[in-house]
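Practice problem: predict the structure.
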Amino acid sequence: MKTVILQAKGLNKSFSAFGNRKTQVLKSIDLEIEQGDFTVIMGASGAGKSTLLYTLSGMDSISQGEVFYKNEKLTNLSEKKMARLRAKEFGFVFQQTHLVSNLTLFENVKLAGYLAGEKQAEEKAKELLTQMGVEEVMDHMPHQVSGGEGQRAAIARAIIGSPGVLFADEPTGALNKKSSEEILNIFTALHQKGQSILMVTHDLRAALRGNRILYLEDGQILSERRFPPYDAKQDQKAREAQLNERLSSLSW
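Answer:
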């Protein structure tokens, strides 16, 4: 039986609109993320996908409910403790790389390692950037590399602290097909090594890499589907057809 690493109970999130009106984005969500799962969150624009990702990771506050990481209630943590937890236990990859513009790729990854308490941050940064295939440009500034190279450096930055959960918000959304495939291959390799991943995506090709797919609609989890772990050596047509059928039934 797998261990639950991240859990939400009765999670609600509202935003203030014009006047005193409030818009409820997440509605009483109950969710368990198991250790080693590659969970994908799908849904139409405005369904609350990114908001769910940010509230689960502590990057955004919740209006009501509870979020637990390894049985620790996140809403009980001070801002300082929450920041320390995010630095050490959570990794983040976004649609845009958000690399520090006046630091090289290597310096960006090394800095994240220091913040995560990695004792050999310099050596590990070089090792990860080499694994990501960007060793030849690790001394370049972010504006001097391609989008795919920058995203691979961003993944290295996200995992240098060996996070318990890797959060990804549309990680291939700004990339071409070739670069997207390279990034997805990296995520698949990380998952095969046991990394827990929670990813938001609109991209069917990206979603197929997960072994658990959640469909969000109007702030609620409408559907869940589990698949065997992704294996590039196997024909994925049946997997794609099953997901397409499920999404079509949900008016995707």
